[in-house]
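Morning. Coffee machine broken again, so started the prediction first thing and wrote up yesterday's gels while waiting. Chain of 109 residues, entered below exactly as on the submission form.
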Amino acid sequence: MAHSDDKQQFLAQVFTVIHQIPPGKVSTYGDVAKMAGYPGYARHVGKALGQLPKGSTLPWFRVINSKGEISLSGPDFERQRSELVAEGIPISSSGKISLRCYRWQPGSM
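Came back before lunch.
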């Protein structure tokens, strides 16, 4: 994905998908990549979220890894955890979330 137009298209698609994740639900990096039309680009979704500007309104914190865990550490882990807890999503102390209960499936609520 070296070409700048391709990268902008990828980011636009990814951010559109993430904006649709409803409060109280989560999605995985891989699910977001797939829904954006880029299956296999889960790692790129994570990188894109890591470069969001401070104060972004994108609900980045609703995106977790395929094991149902928060991938971040330190203060970023705590920030993501507190955002999810505030939306009513129970999280274990290690950062695990039940994908069975909280995974967002488009077209369902």
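The beta strands are 27-28, 63-64. Going to sketch it on the whiteboard this afternoon.
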